[in-house]
Amino acid sequence: MHAVAINGSARLNGNTSTLLRVCLDVLEVAGISGELIQLAENPIRPCKACGTCFVMKNNECITKKDAFHEVYEKMRQADILLLGSPVYFGSATADLMALLDRAGYVGRANGNVFSRKIGGPIVVARRAGQNFTLAQLLFWFMIMDMVVPGSSYWNVGFGRLQGEVSEDTESVETVRHFAENLVWLAGKLRG
User: Fold this and answer.
1) Given a cut of 90, is residue 190 above it in pLDDT?
2) CB 34 within 8 A of CB 28
3) CATH homologous superfamily of domain 2-190?
4) Is the dihedral of CA 93, 71, 38, 147 positive or negative?
5) Could you tell me which residues come within 8 angstroms of residue 169 by beta carbon, excluding any fewer than 6 positions away?
6) Would the pLDDT of 90 be above 90?
7) Would you list the domain boundaries of the chain?
8) Edge-to-edge order in the sheet of strand 2-7
9) Closest to 90 in 3D by CA, of 119, 122, 120, 126
């Protein structure tokens, strides 16, 4: 099994990537390989809503001048998909939503390629807005027909300065428990 974690933050090694790495570390100990994709290094343009992906049906988007196809292919091949975003004015980052909009359309146009994959969101806020952002990302997982395990609390953390989320021990433990549930669920699915 292989996991792909996508960091929607503009900060490469900020609080969002810290929690995604906690999750990936737990998966790795359980023998599940993983990689972290940083959208700050792989910018994605927004969806044009042109509908061409439904005509072509070749797992491609008509927009070619960005990292979408590379990231989408990794998402498509992954068994476990993790999405991380800081809260920007009560929602996920525009970079992450651009990816999800396009991946959602292309994936659904090609037989709903994310159906029954497992994963979930991880959100970091300075102070508030994490529930809205978590729900926003959960909506994407749900409409993609994915399976999202729970945890001991919602997958949210608090921190503004780089590394500050590590001091939020409850969020670190919540993400660890979420990752353990991913491992358990992956084992059940392997049969």
Assistant:
1) no
2) yes
3) Flavodoxin domain (3.40.50.360)
4) positive
5) none
6) yes
7) 2-190
8) 33-38, 2-7, 80-86, 118-125, 156-158
9) 126
